[in-house]
Structures are given as structure tokens and as C-alpha cells.
Amino acid sequence: MPPTSETLTAERILEATEEVLRRHGPAKATVVDVARALGVSHGSVYRHFRTKAALREAVTKRWLDRTSLRLAGIVDAEDRDPRQRLRDWLAALFAAKRHKAGDDPELFATYTVLTDELGGVVFEHIADLTGQLTRIITAGAGSGDFSVPDPAAAARAVFQATGRFHDPCYAREWTAPGIDEEFTAVVDLLVRGLSSPSR
Amino acid sequence: MPPTSETLTAERILEATEEVLRRHGPAKATVVDVARALGVSHGSVYRHFRTKAALREAVTKRWLDRTSLRLAGIVDAEDRDPRQRLRDWLAALFAAKRHKAGDDPELFATYTVLTDELGGVVFEHIADLTGQLTRIITAGAGSGDFSVPDPAAAARAVFQATGRFHDPCYAREWTAPGIDEEFTAVVDLLVRGLSSPSR
Question: What ranges are recorded for DNA binding (chains A, B) (predicted)?
Fold first, then answer.
């Protein structure tokens, strides 16, 4: 029962694309595979995404956005002080990445290949995440919890200093014994750094 | 003028091995290539290194040790206070890695493949480096510059938090504009964290 092209939304194409990527891997997945999975012509897919590159970019962005959306709620959780929000946000980022890597390793490997190719999408994703961090650190600077002259620069430093716990190049280590203690030690050190007066 | 086997030292074999790796890459380099480069039989090479794996391990360890040896002098430089020693040590590590990656990219790529295969050698190298860091942080705890209950744990955290500036998976970014400012921002934050009283 192939759906008619009326019901063909960008979101449905992206869902199908992810499934095709999971099955065939990034090197072999084609727009024809996606169209076949949806029971439509490849022309119908191209009406939504003008090139294969655009489709790959959109599906990768959607995958990355799933993480940012999960974290966005923590940024505004004003029931928690900024220090706690920062810890919770970093822990949620680590948990989200760890789940992605552990629950579906093939898809994670596929997206790791795609993000290596799609520098611009990753750049935007990192800008999005460090933007969220900047808002938490700005709140902490406002409340006096943090002593930070430049919250955006501090957010970049915190994001980079915690790379071991969110950058895919460390995915193999996310199940190592002691990794949770290591995460806590790094976050403690960074929170102390943000909290102490500048010299 | 092939040298006699009397003059064949482990160090000469390792030098030749590095040259063979540079020329052929890690996948194709063989013990026969190394023996040929030295003008000796492969049996003579095996008298020093009993297996190809042992030879690869030794040459990789030698390459990694070059970095640790450069840094060791900073650990004991008591003319500088521990905070400055920590900054200098991290900057020297970044500089050493950056030089290795930039001056001889083929050899760097080769050793990155080898270190991926040789987990034990890398583990020892990291233990060696964090051991050096632990000595600096211990000195800082003794002098009151750092407020750190567990210098070894703090050293691991500092090493991991600065991975962007020494881990080969970030080598591509070491020439990016702004990387030096990013390095300074991360190190400042960590030094502040180490210096502030625990809560």
C-alpha cells in the first residue's frame, strides 16, 4: 500500500532515510533506496530534498537536533541553581551520546561518518550546544554563582574540556570502568574554576 | 657498505624501522624491509626483536617517549611556581604534538594507526604523562598554590580536559584559527579550578 505523494512529508522521508542508512550504511544508501522504502518515485523525494547531499545533511541535522532538544529544557530549569544546571546539562549530554552509541552502534557509526563529511552541520550543532551552555553560565554570572567575564568564551572552554564525554572519537571509552568518576572529576574541576574569582 | 651485525643495535633497528614506516606506511612495512634498509638478514633483526609485533611496539614506544622526555624537564623546574609549571607543561605537550602532526604528517598518521592498535603502549604513555602532571600538582598542593585533596585524580582530570590539545583525534584542528586562545581559556579555567578551595 504505497502512500500517495500527498502524504509524503519531509519528516517521513527523513525517517525512511534513517532506516535506509541503518540498513545499508552511509556509503551504499541511495535516494532510490529511500524512495523504494516509501513506495514512491525518487522524483517525489527530490521534490522535498533537491540533492542527495541535501537529504544527507537534513537527516544528520535531525539526528543531532534530537540531542540539543533534550538538553534545552535544562537551560531554563530555574528551580535549580546555575551550578546544578551546568552539572545536569553536561551529564545529560554525556548520557544522550552514550545512549546513541550504545543502543544502536551501527546507526551511531553511520552518523559519525556523515558528521565527518558534513562540517557545516556539526559546526551549527556545536554552536547550538555552546549557546545553551552560554545561557546557563550567563545566569550563573548574574546570580553570583560564577565569576566569569566572558560567558561565551567560558562556555566554549567547558564544552571543549568535556570532549571526552561527548565527542564521538571517545565513544569506545564511554563504557570503560571508572568513566563516571572521571566525568565527575572533570566537571567538579570546571565548576570550581567557573566559581572562583578571576586573578 | 652494509654494516656488520656487530654494529647492529636496537636503536639502529628502530631508526630504520621508523624510516621504513614513513616510506611504506603501517600496513605494508615488513621486517624484511627493515633488514634490507640496514643491509642485514631479517634473522639479525629478530635477534633484537623477537616478533614483528615487538618491533612495532618498540618503535611506537620510542616515538611516544620522545614527547615524555621533552616534558620531564619542566616537572622539576623549581625556578617556576607550580601554576606556571603546569601551564608550561601543557603548552609544551600541545607544541610537541602539534609539531609531530605538522612537520611530518605521514609519519604522524602512521603512528596514529599504530597507537590505535597498541593499547598497552598508549596506556603506559598516558600513565607516564599523568605521572608527570601529578608531580607538578603535588608540588602545588604542598606550596599552597593548589587546593587539591587527590593530586593523581586531579592530574587525570587535567589531562582529560585538555585532550583537544594533545589527542591525535583532534590533530586536524591544531592549525585552526583561534586554537591558541582556546587552549589558554581551557588552561586558565583548570588552573582556577585547581587553585580555588574545595567546597
Answer: 30-49
